[in-house]
Amino acid sequence: QVQLVESGGGLVQAGGSLRLSCAVSASGFRINAMGWYRQGPGKQRDLVATITYGGITNYADSVKGRFTIARDNAKSTVYLQMNSLKPEDTAVYYCNVVIWKEFWGKGTLVTVSS
After folding, report:
1. What does 27-76 look like in DSSP terms, one character per residue?
2. 71-86: pLDDT as tens digits
3. What is the pLDDT of residues 30-48, one digit of tens each?
4. Do the beta carbons of residue 15 and residue 88 sit within 8 Å?
5. How many CB atoms lie within 10 A of CB 89?
6. CA-to-CA distance for 76 and 28, rounded, in angstroms?
């Protein structure tokens, strides 16, 4: 059974920083891609950033230069460092991993006040 546990969300002022973490229990299976998606109020769920097992990253244009995704394969954990946060970054952030199929976390709320 695969479980994803997200942490690190919260309330922050514009210009501030937060770090999200997602710890994955994958029963020994190799985790291929890991990533973060977000869903703002009244919006669809969109990609934020992804990272392959080998460390190749991909970012949404809206977060390039502000967010950094990283992973620790030994700990089966993916991180999202979010700097220079803006009110439009307010959303529920979901962890996503690809093993033999996609798995999703339950989400963690990030609120950025102006």
Report:
1. TTPPP--EEEEEE-TTS-EEEEEEE-TT--EEE-GGGTTTEEEEEETTTT
2. 999 999 999 999 999 9
3. 999 999 999 999 999 999 9
4. no
5. 22
6. 10
